[in-house]
């Protein structure tokens, strides 16, 4: 007996026949829908029954659409955040630059007013170079011998005494701070008028030989006494932070702090020496002044 052959093609209606049949069914349904309400009601019921399936079928599409919107929104917010951070950094930098410029303008204005009011012969100079060491005891200004600057001229800011011209070039000069170990300044206590000497001490000031039988109090102001040819009288030098006498010593143990902004100023006043006298900034002056202090 012969085995039946395998046939994977289902024998049925042809595609053309299926199209004709379905077309006739569609036309029949359209005619029935226009003529009979029962068909409309049945269609509504069928639509209601199929709505959950339609909703479920749409969820993946909605999820993808919502995800794309969320991703686009996050990307937009990220870009906007980066832009705002950049603008914020730029604004902070601009504000910082404006504050520095404002500080320089205020300092220059104060110095100009001081020059006009009390020191008409003084010259305003700008600091153009500092030592790489922030605690260095010297800097360079933009005025020199071409501007009648002389070695030994005093230098001040709007707060108080800064230092002394120690080297002069045609268009620039070097200023040594009062805190240099070679500096000795004739001074007096503003409150009592008692004269003394203030010494530089490698970044700070020292009041070494103030007699214990005189009056010295905390917050006393030390000013230049004018007892030399360098510093005019009355320029603030330092303020007394601590004063202690006794313990068998003939001198006070005092701690003083400079008034001037030694490392923060941008502009300074160069104050000329008394006419016809020459100042010598050297260790010989220190020795002479120390001898004077011992006599006092």
CATH architecture of the domain at 123-295: Beta Barrel
Overall number of strands: 12
Low-confidence stretches: 276-296
Determine and state the CATH class of the domain at 123-295.
Mainly Beta
Q: How would you classify the helix and strand content by structural class? A: alpha+beta
- Please tell me the overall pLDDT: 78
- The third-level CATH topology of the domain at 123-295 is Thrombin, subunit H
Give the termini distance in whole angstroms: 148 Å
Q: SSE order, as H and E?
A: HHEEEEEEEEEEEEH
Q: What global shape is seen? A: rod-shaped
Largest sheet: spatial strand order: 1-2-5-4-3-12
Main sheet: strands, sense, barrel: 6 strands, antiparallel, barrel
What is the overall number of helices?
Answer: 3
CATH homologous superfamily assignment of the domain at 123-295? Rod shape-determining protein MreC, domain 1
Strand content: 15-25%
């Amino acid at each position: 007996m012969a085995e039946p052959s395998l046939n994977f093609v289902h024998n049925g209606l042809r595609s053309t026949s299926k199209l004709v049949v379905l077309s006739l069914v569609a036309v029949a349904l359209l005619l029935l829908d226009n003529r009979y309400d029962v068909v409309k009601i049945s269609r509504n019921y069928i639509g209601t029954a199929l709505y959950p399936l339609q909703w479920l079928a749409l969820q993946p599409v909605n999820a993808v659409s919502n995800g794309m919107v969320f991703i686009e929104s996050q990307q937009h917010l990220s870009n906007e955040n980066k832009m705002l951070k950049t603008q914020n950094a730029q604004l902070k930098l601009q504000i910082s630059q404006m504050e520095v410029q404002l500080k320089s303008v205020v300092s220059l204005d104060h110095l100009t007013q001081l020059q006009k009011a009390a020191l008409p012969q003084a010259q305003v100079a700008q600091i153009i170079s500092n030592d790489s060491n922030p605690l260095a005891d010297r800097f360079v200004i933009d005025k020199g011998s071409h501007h009648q600057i002389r070695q030994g001229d005093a230098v001040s800011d709007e707060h108080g005494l800064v230092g002394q011209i120690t080297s002069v070039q045609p268009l620039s000069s070097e200023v040594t701070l009062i805190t240099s170990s070679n500096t000795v300044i004739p001074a007096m206590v503003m409150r009592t008028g008692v004269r003394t000497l203030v010494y530089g001490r490698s970044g700070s000031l020292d009041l070494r030989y103030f007699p214990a039988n005189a009056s010295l109090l905390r917050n006393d102001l030390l000013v230049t006494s004018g007892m030399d040819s360098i510093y005019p009288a009355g320029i603030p030098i330092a303020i007394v932070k601590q004063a202690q006498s006794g313990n068998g010593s003939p001198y006070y143990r005092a701690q003083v702090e400079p008034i001037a902004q030694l490392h923060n100023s941008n502009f300074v006043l160069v104050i000329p020496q008394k006419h016809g006298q020459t100042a010598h900034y050297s260790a010989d002056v220190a020795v002479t002044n120390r001898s004077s202090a011992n006599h006092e």
